[in-house]
Specification:
- Helix content is 25%, strand content 23%.
- The protein contains ten helices and 20 strands.
- The protein is globular.
- It is an alpha+beta fold.
């Protein structure tokens, strides 16, 4: 959980002024002014000031913030910056042409329908965007109908059974404009709800019960995309930046582990929005801006589906540990991990692994659904020693994590890492693979 009362800083990539207008302005406008797109070479990362101390909860309140990623200490060199600008100039040129000339009326109508019936503003302890989706997690039963957002919007302490969550559909972009069918709904959680959350992948998924679904027939549930995301794939995002319904589009710039780096424009309050492909199926969940590569970031939906499926297969769906990022280990479990070569770090659930004479140092992360591992960089340990834990945790989460996928062979998992592991490191990965969910 991120402390929302300390230094709220938001780093997001603004691709164009057009990307933060209400859906009607963008989707229904047949004569889009090309000049509004501008040249992305002049765009830069900006600090978005947030009125975090304001007690107002009005429609224009800026109390929501997209905050899981802080500014990196290391600045990119000029060559990297030039490559970034050149690449994104091409991306946004294609974006302008696609929207202005080739976007079918049928797609525009569907996007407008999704904005009104599938995306909501979450007004809870934290504020952000959420969306409704149908997930075929239970193959022998009916699908799960769920609300999805970020873990930093709906975190463990805020989604306990008995909690009520206020959401709004078709919330107007400002006070002066009022939609006739604006709808406030309340989701009340119970022990019967499947509630999953994970801090590492920054996702919360809440199953909606039959009563809520039957009482709200106007809600339209998005369909998931099971295909792997690809670079330069077109993406749409419907969101509530600063609590105001808006629309943006962009491209998938790159995939790194379970992260999707994309160019669609967002602001504070966009956290938890769905990333849609050109077929309007969900490919991921937007979670914030990342200064290190000057892009916005999301989590692939497929990693969420994997987590839900593996927890269901193991019969853990309704256990409390699914509602928290990870449980506390017993003393004998800690000792066994240490015997295997995994050493505690000052950050909960993060373990270091290094050997004398080894050039490859590893990090392992324990969640409530899987182990992940990645390559360690020296500066992370230095920052840990300096007790700069909050910032380094944010950076560590954005590393390229390799999932220890129980549905794959150990050889495939090691191959997915992309670098040659030493035998002792392979043995640790195999031990965690064989342990299944014992430490979850």
């Amino acid at each position: 959980m991120f402390n929302n009362n300390e230094g709220k800083v938001n780093y997001n990539v603004k691709s164009s002024e057009l990307n933060n207008v209400s859906p009607e302005i963008l989707i229904n406008n047949e004569n889009i002014d090309n000049n509004v797109y501008g040249n992305n070479n002049d765009e830069k990362i900006e600090d978005i000031k947030n009125d975090s101390d304001s007690s107002s909860s009005s429609d224009d309140d800026d109390s929501s913030v997209e905050k899981p990623f802080l500014k990196s200490k290391n600045n990119d060199n000029n060559d990297n910056n030039n490559n970034y600008n050149n690449n994104n100039t091409n991306l946004f040129t294609r974006q302008k042409i696609y929207i202005d000339r080739y976007l079918p009326i049928k797609i525009k109508d569907k996007l407008l329908d999704i904005s009104r019936k599938s995306v909501c503003w979450i007004d809870h302890i934290e504020k952000g965007t959420g969306f409704f989706i149908k997930l075929p997690i239970l193959p022998k039963e009916k699908p799960i109908y769920a609300l999805i957002s970020n873990n930093h919007v709906l975190f463990s302490e805020s989604i306990r059974p008995g909690t009520s969550i206020n959401i709004f559909l078709n919330k107007p972009p400002n006070k002066k404009k009022r939609y006739n069918n604006i709808s406030k709904k309340v989701i009340t959680l119970s022990e019967k709800n499947i509630i999953f959350t994970s801090e590492l992948i920054d996702v919360t998924c809440i199953q909606l019960d039959d009563t809520f679904i039957n009482d709200n027939p106007d809600i339209v549930f998005l369909e998931p995309c099971f295909d792997k995301c690809i670079d330069e794939e077109l993406t749409y995002i419907i969101q509530y930046p600063k609590g105001k319904l808006s629309f943006a589009s962009g491209f998938v710039q790159s995939i790194s582990g379970f992260h999707i780096f994309h160019t669609a424009s967002t602001l504070g309050g966009s956290s938890g929005s769905s990333l849609l492909n050109e077929n309007l199926k969900c490919i991921g969940i937007h979670k914030g801006g990342y200064q290190r590569n000057k892009l916005n970031a999301g989590t692939e939906l497929n990693i969420v589906i994997y987590a839900l499926c593996i927890l269901n297969d193991k019969g853990f769906f309704h256990e409390e540990k699914v509602r928290i990022s990870s449980r506390k280990l017993l003393p004998n479990e800690k000792d066994e991990l240490k015997n295997q070569g995994l050493h505690n770090s000052p950050i909960p659930n993060l373990y270091t692994c290094s050997y004398d004479g080894s050039s490859l140092h590893m990090l392992f992360y324990r969640t409530n659904h899987a182990w992940y591992f990645t390559k360690e960089e020296a500066r992370y340990i230095r920052d840990l020693e300096e007790k700069n834990h909050e910032q380094i945790l944010i950076t560590i989460k954005m590393l390229k994590w390799t999932l220890i996928n129980l549905n794959e062979t150990i050889e495939t998992i090691i191959s997915n890492f992309g670098e040659e592991l030493e035998q002792r490191q392979k043995d640790i990965v195999k031990y965690l693979y064989d342990s299944q969910l014992m430490y979850m």
